Amino acid sequence: MKFILPLLVKKVIKDFQKNNFEIYIVGGAVRDLLMAKATYDWDFTTNATPEEIQKILPESFYDNRFGTVGIAVKDLIKRYQIKDKPLKGINTSRPFEITTFRTEGVYRDGRHPNEVSWGKTLEEDLERRDFTINAMAIKIQEVGVKTNQFTIIDPFGGQQDLQKKLIRAVGEPAVRFKEDALRLMRAIRIAAELGFSIEEKTLKAIAENHQLLNKISAERLRDELFKILKANFPADGLKLLAATHLLEIILPELSKTQGVQQAGHHTTDVWHHSLASLANCPSPEPVVRLAALLHDIGKPVTFRKIENKITFYGHEVVGTKIASKIAERLKFSQRDKEKLLILIRYHMFAYQPAMTDASIRRFIRKVGRENINDMILLRIADRLGGGSRATSWRLRELQERIGKVLYTPMQIKDLKVNGYDVMKTLKLKPGPKVGKILNQLFEEVLEDAAKNKREYLLKRMKALKTT
Question: Which fold has domain 7-163?
């Protein structure tokens, strides 16, 4: 096997070697290199202590008790004075992490070890890792040539599992999961990212220990969920969450969609439609993909069957309320929460050719200019998830009309006049009258964008003052 290491990686390795320390590439970078994938996150392990690491790399920082020293990519570039393509193959938003060999004691909170001791050998360090494909290391014997002389250290059969496309715990799965309950989700996330299966014993241990996930903070659950949603195979990840009972802890509301019958063009229950919508969502953004997954979350509550006719009246309103509780429970940012709720609330939008340009502008204003493209992508996901074609003549026509009016006035701040102009022209003091006139002007411009001319609006506000 041949691979080319980024120059920054070579420089770090060379610095440790010339100081007579062992240093190995570990973690996801090893896995990616062996899979011939572009790799961006670089982690190392060494027999140097954190204090010794910082002597070699004075620009680094050490703010934890787990032996991990970080150094920003920009500081490495400055240190080594690299000017020619220094960022190729490197994630600039994440520091290089260099960790002292570790052996760990008892885990008492299901997330962090009660105590950490420095290990003496690489094997001790690899033994504490989560999955076999993450428990490999690469030792570089020769630095500075394109074809690197290297040795792969693989005590737990990670290479074989890579070939089999298997996620398998190192050692006893239940022990690994009790050490760190977040590994329950991480196993599924890695499987969803790589398109791998989870080894039978490991999968069984996830299901048997699913309650351990209750020990994990909402923020960490949210972050892992978003990573699953961003993965190459997000729907497969959700199926695994459901099969192992983790979904009951993370998104219990979604579990309730299983078996909820639908009608019309739908041929599956709400659960399978939601999964298919997620799988077909054209957007890579996790919030948009989550909206595709949750857009019908209100259907179990609104399900009605009268004389063999199934209805879900108001499911988008109910679903928005349910999604709001989910967003609060999982500590979403306000921005992510608002986007999710808007997409779910208005995903049932309808279009008719008779709609005026003003109606199109009102729709864009209601959804938000920044969300309009995501709303269309959600509709495409919904259509594909229901067995329809990605688009229709109505959807194409709506997109064309949105494109034509998208950059016309959508908000009061888009007017060619403002509150100061109203007060100056009409000699008014700040108050409700100023806002009322601006709103009246905006309603006229919303109906006819051509009226958004300063001269017209200044003249028009004088007429409005007397009404």
Answer: Beta Polymerase; domain 2 (3.30.460)
CATH class of 165-249: mainly alpha
Q: Which of 76-80, 226-230, 241-245, 299-303 has the lowest average pLDDT?
A: 76-80
Distance CA 343, CA 179 (A): 38
288, 290, 311: which is closest to 301 by C-alpha?
Answer: 311
Question: Do 165-249 and 251-407 fold alike per CATH?
Answer: no
Rounded Cα gap, residues 60 and 90, in angstroms? 17
Q: Residue 417: in which H helix or E strand, if any?
A: none
pLDDT reported for residue 422: 92
Two structure tokens written together for 437: 């006139």
Distance between alpha carbon 345 and the CA centroid of its chain, in Å? 21
CA-based nearest residue to 403, from 447, 443, 372, 446: 372
Nearest partner of 146 among 256, 37, 6, 251, judged by Cα: 6
Over residues 297-326, the pLDDT tens digits come to 999 999 998 888 989 999 999 999 999 999
